[in-house]
Structure formats: structure tokens, C-alpha cells
Write a structure and sequence with these properties.
With 262 residues, the protein is α/β, with parallel strands linked by helices. The protein is built from ten helices and twelve strands. It folds into two domains: 102 residues, Ribosomal protein L30/S12 (60s Ribosomal Protein L30, Chain: A); 145 residues, 3-Layer(aba) Sandwich (Alpha/beta knot), CATH 3.40.1280.10. Helices cover 36% and strands 20% of the residues.
């Protein structure tokens, strides 16, 4: 166990950049997992991380101690930080003091869309993005394509909202969605509050690609023009539309319902 106690330590400065800078995360192709649940999920689905970080008092927590022992047995570098330094890295209030440094998966974009997928056009809110990833994983969808201008999927906030879904999905970032749609061999369904066709009127038992857009502006006009259909989610009440993450969940699980009903 290595102990770092100075803010001027070069490794600590690198960790601080990972915690606070999206640019640093993109450049290094690394990010931070914050908390026991994400770290345990990573161990179960991926394996050992490149580095484990803990606060000085967290080893007293039984689950943290077990995770650290697993890492040390696999010769993963484990770093202990004073609570004051650790809190600068963590965005979880009243957490137990455990972080993993992980490599961000680099996944090649397929030449054609042939399986059910999610396409995200300039989605901005990390909470919405993480929630969509979680719903997609729960619905058995394997691939998510984040278009240019979409929030970084591997940021700490999105990771927390995803609750481990990242490790069950193939996530592609900075994707040219126009180029991807040109070679799709499955229907592209774009949600729109102005569409007349309802999702409940569609055959969703076969693979489809769900296209969701910016929280305020929706899907861009060029992508809407490439969609096979524009579909709406009917609702009661005077609200104009649903939150994009809620809309996505409704769509995904209507597809699940139809598949299960076959």
C-alpha cells in the first residue's frame, strides 16, 4: 500500500485531473469509478483495474477491505490518501472512500447497424445519459452510439447514474451518426412529440435503432430526415413531452414487452 500525503505529488495531480477534467479523461482514455457498487461491478464483469485508490479511514469498511485485498493479490497498485485529498477526487457525499482508475474501453464502430441499438444526438445531461444506458442494459440492448456533442459517457457523473450498465454495453463515442444511419439495415425510430404514429402501433419484435436527441432541441433535422419513422409516446395530462430518459425507458420496455409476448 502506497501512501500519498502531498497535493504536489505528480500521481495525485494526475488523479485530480481525471476527477475534474473531461479533456484529461478523453486524452488519457482513463476515468474514475467512485464507490463500492461500481468497483464491485467492474470486478465482476471486467476484471482487475489498473489502480485502486482509498481514503485513510475506508479500510475499516469490510467490503472495501475485501476489494483492496483482491487488488493487492493481483498486484494492482493501491494508493491511500488522507481524507482531505481523497474528497477532492470523489463526487460522492458521505461515500466509503473507494475509487478505481480504469481504462476507457475503445470500441470500433461497426460498418452496419444490424442489431437493436440506441443512437444519441447531442444529449447533454449526464444524469439523462446514465439513466438511458441503465435502461438500455436492462432491456437487453447491446450497443449505444453517442453522436458528436453528446456528454462523455465515461465521466464520473454518467458512471454513477448508469449504476454499472457501462460494463454490459458496447458504448461508442464521438460517432458520425449520419454516416452510421446511411448503412443501417434495421428500422430507425426517432421519438418526436409531434409524430402521429404511436410506439404501441409498431412491430418492435425485430431489431430497431432508437434515435433520441438533445433535451431541448430534440433530434436534428438531418437525422430526422434519415429516420424510418417518427414515433410518439401518448400521454395524459397537460405536459408537452416526457424527459428524454423517461421516453427512452418507455420505448425500450415496450420492445421488451413485445418480445416477451411472442
Amino acid at each position: 500500500m502506497k501512501i500519498i500525503s502531498s497535493r504536489e505529488n505528480p500521481l495525485y495531480k494526475e488523479l485530480k485531473l481525471l476527477a475534474t477534467s473531461s479533456q484529461a479523461r478523453r486524452k488519457s482514455a482513463r476515468t474514475l469509478l467512485d464507490g463500492i457498487h461500481l468497483c464491485q461491478t467492474y470486478l465482476q464483469n471486467v476484471g482487475m483495474p489498473p489502480m485502486c485508490i482509498l481514503s485513510e479511514n475506508s479500510f475499516a469498511h469490510a467490503e472495501v477491505a475485501d476489494i483492496v485485498r483482491q487488488c493487492e493479490s493481483a498486484h494492482v497498485p493501491c494508493i491511500e490518501l488522507p481524507d482531505a485529498l481523497y474528497q477532492t477526487l470523489s463526487q460522492v457525499e458521505h461515500g466509503v472512500g473507494l475509487l478505481f482508475v480504469i481504462d476507457t474501453p475503445q470500441t470500433a464502430v461497426p460498418e452496419k447497424l444490424t442489431r437493436s441499438a440506441v443512437l444519441l444526438d447531442r444529449l447533454q445531461d449526464p444524469g439523462n445519459l446514465g439513466s438511458i444506458l441503465r435502461s438500455a442494459a436492462a432491456a437487453g440492448i447491446e450497443s449505444v452510439f453517442c453522436g458528436k456533442g453528446t456528454a462523455l459517457a465515461w465521466s464520473p457523473k454518467v458512471l454513477r447514474a448508469g449504476m454499472g450498465a457501462h460494463f454490459l454495453l458496447k458504448i461508442h463515442e464521438n460517432v458520425d451518426l449520419v454516416a452510421l444511419l446511411r448503412h443501417a439495415t434495421i428500422p430507425i425510430l426517432a421519438t418526436s412529440s409531434h409524430a402521429s404514429q404511436r410506439i404501441y402501433d409498431l412491430d418492435l419484435s425485430q431489431p430497431v435503432a432508437w434515435l433520441f436527441g438533445h433535451e431541448g432541441q430534440g433530434v436534428s433535422e438531418d437525422l430526422l430526415g434519415m429516420a424510418t419513422s417518427q414515433v410518439a409516446i401518448p400521454h395524459l395530462g397537460s405536459v408537452e413531452s416526457l424527459n428524454v430518459a423517461a421516453s427512452a425507458a418507455v420505448c425500450f420496455f415496450e420492445q421488451v414487452r413485445q418480445k416477451v409476448a411472442i
